[in-house]
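Morning, I've got a small favour to ask if you have a moment. I'm working through a protein record and want to make sense of it properly. The fold is given in discrete form, as structure tokens running alongside the sequence. Can you walk me through what the tokens say about the fold? Thanks so much in advance, here it is:
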Amino acid sequence: MGEKLKTRYLQGFGLVVVILALVRAVFIDGHGSESSAGMTDSVAVSDSLPSYSGIAHPVRGVRSYTEAFPDTNDLQLSAAVQHGIRPAMSRQEAMKRDGERLVYIGFSPFYHVDSLKRSIPYLVPRAALLLHDMGRAFFDSLEVKHVPLHRLVVSSVLRTGDDVNKLRGHNRNATERSCHLFGTTFDVSYNRYKAVNACDTCSDRAQSDTLKRVLSEVLRDMRENGRCYVKHERKQGCFHITVR
């Protein structure tokens, strides 16, 4: 009796295996190529998208740029005098200063230095570190908000007395006692950015506004943490920033 049950069990098991094999063969022959094409399309679409992970954080910005960044030139000048170099009349003089270090900030993965006409790309180490951290924080913020990566554009850095005099000849509002004389201050554009990927070039007003709001969050946090003073310059289209 035991042998008969064993034989029937083996026969039944073999029949089930045969049926499953047939079903699998039919599925692969009838749908395999279509399924493969579907998988290929899915991978292609996935590869073309940014490698964001998790849920996108919201882009909020600040309620008012004027209220969030009110730091006047006099306030920033006080910090510039405290942390900066002695103003130099010429660029040659600035480069030959003994005992006063300046850091070249012409190249960075986090920001782009504009074509400078009235300044040179040098800052005191304290300000250079601030700019570096600011650009990196901007990258991090863009990533968690699922916004295409862009580098900041630095539009003005260290000025000499000659630079200030030439600037005042073209701009009556330029102050003779400029914070830029001390190597502690730089301007960051809020309507121009450098896309990391060419296809993400900021070409429309909506994207530029989004990038500005993200940047304003970064600057607000750094200002509230006591790292810098910030002034929102409407006419110049930049944030005027001095290290603290």
